[in-house]
Structures are given as C-alpha cells and as structure tokens.
Amino acid sequence: MLQPAFHSAAIRWQFARYLAIGGTVFCVDIGSFQLFMRAGLALALAVTLSYGLAISAHFTLNKYLNFRSHDRTVGSQLSTYLAVAFVLWLISLGVVEVAFRVFGLTPLLAKLLAIAINVPLGFLGHRYLTFGAGISAQIKRILRA
Description:
This protein is an all-alpha fold. The protein has helices at 9-38, 43-66, 74-101, 107-130, 135-144.
C-alpha cells in the first residue's frame, strides 16, 4: 500500500530544506531568466537556459545538503535527476507558454506559476526517484503493491 507523501516528520523537514534550497535556486532561475529576457532572447530559450542553470545548482545542493544520498552512484542519480528535470522542464515550458499566450500573464508571472506547480512535483520526484531507489526500482515496487 502506498503511504501519503508527507507521512513523517523527517520527510516534512526534508521538504522544508528542499524549499530553502529552492529559494536559492529560485534566485538563480528568476535572476538569469530576467537577464536573458532583457538580452532579447526568445521566451522559450530564456526559460530553457535559466532552467538549466537552476537545476545544476539544485542537484548539487540537494544531493549534498538535503537528501545526503550516497546509495547510488552520482552518475546514476544524475541521470535520474535529468529525467525528472526533463519532465519538469516540459511542464514549466508548457505552463509558461499557455499562461503567457493564452491567459496574457507577463513572462515573469507565467514563470512564477510554473515554479509553483513544479515545487511539490519536483520534491516527490527527487525524493523517491533521484535520491531514492531510482525509477526502475520504484516502478517494480508499485507493480508489486
């Protein structure tokens, strides 16, 4: 049986640290996004470049300061991280485009909305996949349940 995502105090504290790290990464993401937009880059390229800088900082800080996960190799964790980040990037890109083009939000507000959607999804993905047993192990676990 699957347990609720935030079933223990330890996981809630881990999420709090994830949010603190996220605050730092947020500054990297939004700051670089604004710089790229002011430099005249296309919206999708600005989203992509700022996202790439942010996830690089995010992986490193979460690996060593938050999850402190050393059960799998860095390469294995990084490949899982990139898979999770790719899905989150697609969500981010889609939310920004729809919010900007369909709903008329400014690019910055659209980007903030995408971040708000990705935070809980990212925590769960990274906790259980990247810094947990990995994608294959989680799929096997779910299929056995």
